[in-house]
Amino acid sequence: MTRASDIMHQGAECIREHETLAAAARIMRERHVGALPICGENDRLVGIVTDRDIVLRCVAEGKDPAGMTAGDLAQGRPMTVEADEDCEQVLRVMEQYQVRRLPVINHPEHKLVGMISEADIARGLPQARLAEFVSAVCAEEPPKKEALQG
Question: How many CB atoms lie within 10 A of CB 23?
Fold first, then answer.
């Protein structure tokens, strides 16, 4: 049975909640990623910042990415899965909450160990299941509020 740890990108890099969005954008460019987990005290996951968040919630609102922090965009706690979680459960979480990226944590330490993206899912799914997954994640209605814990 395939587990989350089998398909995730290992060693996801956090941006600290006090770091600027300009720093987040530079890290995304260097790492060729569209999202970064936001970590607070004791490396606890406090959110995720995406390239889209930076554009829509900072730049488009006339705010300065050099003065706004990653923590300013963190709202609630993101959904996560544990590294030993079955991939079907990973799919259910991503579909139910319409999320395109999912942090993977190690239990019992609750430390970030990786990220799962749509691309990671696409590499391991049969075509019919992939179409079902994409349809669910990209549905027209906005994500459910329950997607954020906290």
Answer: 17
pLDDT tens readout for residues 106-123? 877 778 889 998 888 888
Instruction: Please identify which residue in the block is written with the tokens 């050099």.
Output: 66
Nearest CA among 101, 122, 84, 139 for reference residue 12:
101
Does residue 108 have a cis peptide bond before it, meaning omega lies within 30 degrees of 0? yes
- Beta strands per DSSP E along 3-100: 9-10, 15-16, 35-39, 45-50, 81-82
Tokens of 76: 């609630």
Contacts of 9 (CB under 8 A, 6+ apart): 114, 115, 116, 117, 120
Q: Which of 26, 2, 13 has the alpha carbon at shortest distance from 103?
A: 13
Please compute the mean of the pLDDT values over residues 142-148 and round it to a whole number: 46
Instruction: Give the pTM.
Output: 0.78
Give tens-digit pLDDT for 44-57.
788 899 999 999 99
The burial class, CB within 10 Å (0-12 / 13-18 / 19+), for 150 is exposed
The helix (run of H) or strand (run of E) holding residue 115 is: strand 111-117
